[in-house]
Amino acid sequence: MARGIKIGDEVAITATVRRRVTDDRISVSIPSYGFPHSIVDRTSKVKKGQQMELVGDVTHIDGEWVTVNLGIPVTVNMDTLRLVTAYKAPTRKTPLVDKPA
Question: pTM higher than 0.70 for the full model?
Answer without folding.
Answer: yes
